[in-house]
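Annotators were shown the component list below and the corresponding predicted structure, then asked to write short factual statements about the assembly.
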Amino acid sequence: MAEIKHAAYICKGCELGSRLDAAALVKVATKDGKMPLVREHDFLCSAEGVAMIKNDIANEGVTHAAICACSRRAKTEAFNFPTVAVSRGNLREGVIWIRPDTDEARETTQEMAEDYVRMACAEVKAMKVPEGNQNTGTSKTLLVVGGGMSGMTAALEAAKTGYKVVLVEKTGALGGMAGQLWKRIPNREPFKAPMDSGVADLVAQIEADASIKVYLNAVIAKTSGAPGRFRVDIAVESGPTVTEDIGAIIQATGFTPYDVNKLGKLGGGQANVVDQLGLEALAKSANGGAIKRADGKDVKSAVFVQCAGQRDTSGEHLSYCSGHCCATSVKQAMYFKDANPDVETVILFTDLRMPGNNEDFYRAAQNKGIVFRKGEVSNVSGGDTCKVQFKDLILDEDTSTDADIVVLATGMVPTTGPDLDQLSEANRAAEGGDTTAKEQVVQMMSKSVLNLDYRQGPDVPQFKHGFNDSHFICFPYETRRTAIYAAGPVRRPMDIAQAQEDATGAAMKAIQAIENAGLGKAAHPRSGDLSFPSVRLEGCTQCKRCTVECPFGAIDEDEKRFPLFNESRCRRCGTCMGACPVRVISFENYSVNTVGAQIKAVDIPDEFSEKPRVLILACENDAYPALDMAGMNRNAYDPFVRIIPVRCLGSVNTIWITDALNSGYDGVMLMGCKHGDQYQCHFVKGSELGRYRMSKVYDTLKGMNLETERLMDLEVAITDVDTLPQKINDYAAKIVEMGMSPFKGL
Amino acid sequence: MTVATNQTILVVGGGIAGMTAALEAAETGKQVVLVEKNPYLGGRTVQLYRYFPKMCHPTCGLEINLRRLKANPRIQVLTMAEVTGISGDKGNYSVNVKLAPRFVNENCTACGECNKAATSEIDDAFNYDLGKVKAAYLPNDMAYPQRYVIDPSVVGTAEGQAIKAACKYGAVDLDMKEEVVTLNAGAIVWATGWQPYDAAKITPYRYGEFKNVITNVEFERLADPHGPTGGKILRPSDGKEAKNVAFIQCAGSRDENHLRHCSRFCCMASLKQTRYVQEAFGDAGKSTIYYIDIRAIDRFEDFYQEVKANPNVSFVKSKVARISEDKNGDPRLWGVNTEGYKRYSEPHDLVVLAVGMEPSVKNVAIPAEVMGDSSGFVMADPSNAGIFGAGCATNALDVNRAVQSATAAALRAVQVVNQVARAEA
Amino acid sequence: MSDMNQQMAAKYQGNFLKEIEEQAETGEWVKMCMQCGVCSGSCPTNFHPGWEHPPQEIFMMIRAGKREEVLSSQSMWMCVSCYNCYVRCPRKVPITHIMHGIAEYAYRIGRAPKNQPTLHLSQTFWNNATKTGRVNEVQLTQTLYFKDGIASGIKKAMAMQDVALGLVKAGRLNLMEAIGGGHKCKDIKGIHAMLAKAKELEAQRKGRAA
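Structure shown to annotators:
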């Protein structure tokens, strides 16, 4: 191994040179930072400055560089030295830009800068350049579960990109729900008539594609391993179980229509009252001719009831909107009109939801004579003559209409596996000896789609209403199981056009996951990160906190009940590191040490100095940029705070807090993202877990005879640029009021 | 120097769709050139205050995307750049890119000295011209590249010289000229996004004439703490707090006199904006949404139900016929609530027109043969060869769906360059 | 005439939308309305109490099969042909024309409201103009003014006397036309033949009740 050489670089540009005593900073880096090589430069990010650093790396053997200049978010192209460990001392946005340029402020500003130099030196010394996860797999095959429109599209798109695909379909034929349709909603100009579903064409393409292997009548019996090296057991009906090596997985298991029999008031289950899929079957058998009812009678009039058991506020049925059903009813009413314009078709709706160019489809429907009425349906009775009672909201009157057939536009129920929270609850009860819970577990497990042998359950965690959706608006594919993506109506209610687009996107993400897993790189949001958690098992107490808390299900337990890290599943948030009570988990460039050393590096003035010290651990995704922007806007804040960015609040180990308070810091502030239902944490559970842990620290504080207010937990959004400085100042003022920590100088 | 080969993917448009397409492709190991017309990335999303339905901030996702971008050496970004010509075919395009002068080079440290030296002011495009900025400016706090821009109006003036002199790092270069570079690319992702429909064309609403009739995109800037009013919802005519706000849906959309299509996002945007009113004024803030159909699709319905349950928000099923102005500057809405024929003539403090999405491609023609639909959106078609639409260039989409579309477009582009790679291997 | 009404009702068996589509001029546009109400709000007579059903509501009533209420409604007769509704309609529905179309149909089958002033004006004008091929303005005015009796006629005439005198002075009104037929076109027979043919052609073209 090459020799380690540390160096520090102090920039004097952007007024750093005039506002700060650079010579003193050099001294601090040399003496306190113990840097053998310290250089200052008038304009460090200039070509010349960068060349100087590069020269040191090439010719002076520098392996670790502490760059004390601007924020780590600035000048990233200039300060890009991938072969060495780099820390950034934030003297600009973090010091001179948030301090007034006055004689009065000079001393505390300088002290602040000196501390940041000490911290940058301490941090870089504790860092290593990540070498990348070596425990990678080599499989570049994509597994697609579900052979409907979404699954077939994902398979074909992946194959077109040059990847092998294994497609597993539960039934005996490809096509899924789309295969049961007579026609589909048009997805291109002129948006005027139903069009061929295209299922047969996709099936033919799949059959002709040698890189797609199809298993029909098959389900996933077991999925083990990690991205790039999944081992998937496929149980084929009346055949042996097959095992495939898989790189990434797309779950495209679709939906089932909401059970129409639950809609008694709307005539569900009664004669000649069908759901949309029921009508598709009738249209299919009519094959373009007059549509007949189940009893063989020609339909002369049809009424469509929108939002049947959907958008339900009573809590009894589905509360969401399935999005496609307005256009689907329009399409189905066209089936009647196209076969015989004299068939009367009425669509009863409250809000007609046909976005985009579907507006043209709506126009075409009106043009064909389909009648639209804004009405709330109260009752439907089936029979030879069906009766629909409703309130016409435009004419403001209760009325009714008769029809030969009534079509209920019911919603989509996703075909996801068991809800993991409910499952783990049942599991706990079952372990406690509850026999009903045991049966429940068996029943729930039978619903599993992927049968992952993950410590945290057999399927992908669900979001709202049981869908495998992402919570993130900017990142629709973020499932909580790395390299497993959901596509189509299992992710969110959608029509065929959207499902195909979605499946193509999911294929992109799955292929990307395969490639990055192979290179030992992290997936979103720390894409490309080569660091990964390593554990010192000798020190592990098998407390299981890491395995339980990992938001991504990356950690299993081995036979000896030690944590088993699956690096390729890991998203590098550091939640495990924050959770570990014995601190045996670390990343090469981010560890209990890299932060701990910074905390220790800060100079703590004695209790009579009137210079308190407040440690701020700020989420690097939102709070730290907000602080940076506060600097850019020259929003001043207290000079006694020392800020350390963390990957996520979830990575904060309580030792940092207790150590800080033990060593004389007067207060600790945590800044993390919103948690709860509308969480904004990029690692889903990180900020929530971090906060939960911190609530335990309050007891420790009491044990130390310290005021609990010395630990403050602040929810910060990236836009809190103007309010954050005030909050910092308020906290600092509170600390002053409280008085200095009694732990100083101990 | 921009390096590009026939295995490069060119992404046109650096909004959230373009950034996504570029990142997804680059993170799969592909070489990408990202071309953006503005001096910064992020597009229209950065100009939004919050996203529906989570009420979270667009800059939060942008920060992650920028970090992905900064960490990825495979993406080259060209800002203030526009594609002016495309020739060649799938697998081997030659693309002309016009680069407008920024007058600031990569030496810029974003220290802001040039801004201090500037004296003249120009319209603040980032805030839809609702405010002013100095002629040497950083477009917004999240601007990437984090580099100032100098307005061409000061070039050749004494002010320009003063700005140049203020920069200690030789970053100001007033001699920069517009240039055209030619790049090679195997596939092109067209993600030029959308523009708000020109509200002045909807004559009965008197936009541009009545100051207190504004658009939904402008309202985002009013609500944003970093907007021209510091986040206070003040009406333009007299700076009075706008506590009684009307939202007019389908302002231009679903209308054969304007945009044929439904723009999809505007119902949700207005529902979200009622929250801004609530947030600013509590129970004193009243919102009224005038609508034809509330299109809160899929789980957005939850959001609609929440807003509907708010007693401070009312819904009127009506396309507003016209707006007049009361003496005190209140815009007065005239029309009929069609649920039971109820005539109204209601004054409000402020009217927000929920203007629709017009594809930018409609106005900025793609310099290549590409299929478009009747609204001017790029339509997927095999005849488009190696050019793929993404995001709102293809359809009226919300952010989430635009990102989905961009991810799909990235794969289509990857398929082309993979084919090229296989052919050349 | 009321036979015609019954015939039509029987022919369409409650499908009033179809009846309007086939029988009323531009009636085929009724189905295109999406109930946004911009027409109703744009109507200058919107705040007139006689305006019982605005256009969009009439269209909904047609779809709901409210035959009697629509045909006997005063509303269509209230249209002043300002075309605000038509130019603002997002579906480009020719609302003004439809209003007239329905009104004309109601009249044709004898279901128009009795003593409807607009109807009276239209009828008077039509009779006056088609009789000789030219409008006799004095007689037209007389018929209108004295519609509700002599006293009210004199009152109206007195109120308008300044305007009338102005018209006379300007040579726009010939009081002599009060007696005799007034000026006529040269070929009255020809005009009548043309009108009869036009009526026949229209009925043929649309298969409408004559």
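Statements collected:
1. Chain C touches chain B through 20 residues (CB under 8 Å).
2. Chain C has twelve helices and no strands.
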